[in-house]
Amino acid sequence: MTKWIRKGPTILKILAAALLGLMLGTPALAEIEQCRFIQGKAEREACYTRQEAALAAKRKPEPGTSDARTIDARAIESLQQMRREDAEVYRSLHGICRGC
User: Fold this and answer.
1) Mean pLDDT of the chain, nearest integer
2) Which tens digits make up the pLDDT trace of 30-75?
3) Are 3 and 44 contained in the same domain?
4) Maximum distance among all Cα pairs of the chain, rounded to whole angstroms
5) What is the DSSP letter of 64?
6) Count of domains for the chain
7) Dihedral sign, CA of 8, 14, 17, 21?
8) What residues make up the domain containing 68?
């Protein structure tokens, strides 16, 4: 019996955290499920189209945006920096061992 008394507050904390997580996660699910209950076919299809567009925008940004260009520019810049550093290392190694 004393085991349950000692574990009581810990169990309550875990249950409270789980309940809070369920309460916060439910509105997001409700937003997605609302189109199913629309009676008019045209309105329901429009709702699904809006949801599809919103989900696609969240998943992947459109290619060719300025963000993609800056990422490519950073990648090219880092490659050029690595090549410069490699050239310096090769020059210093060449000076150490002349017969290699």
Assistant:
1) 76
2) 556 688 888 899 998 999 898 888 888 888 765 555 566 677 888 8
3) yes
4) 85
5) T
6) 2
7) negative
8) 63-100
55: left (phi over 0), alpha (psi -120 to 50) or beta: alpha
Residues 56 and 67 in one domain: no
Q: Are 29 and 35 in contact (CB under 8 A)?
A: no
Do 25 and 67 belong to one domain? no
Q: Are residues 77 and 51 in the same domain?
A: no
Burial degree of 42 (CB within 10 A; 0-12, 13-18, 19+): exposed
Q: Are residues 45 and 72 in the same domain?
A: no
Neighbours of 67 (CB within 10 A): 11
Cβ 34 vs Cβ 48: under 8 Å: no
Q: Give the 3-state secondary structure of residue 39.
A: coil
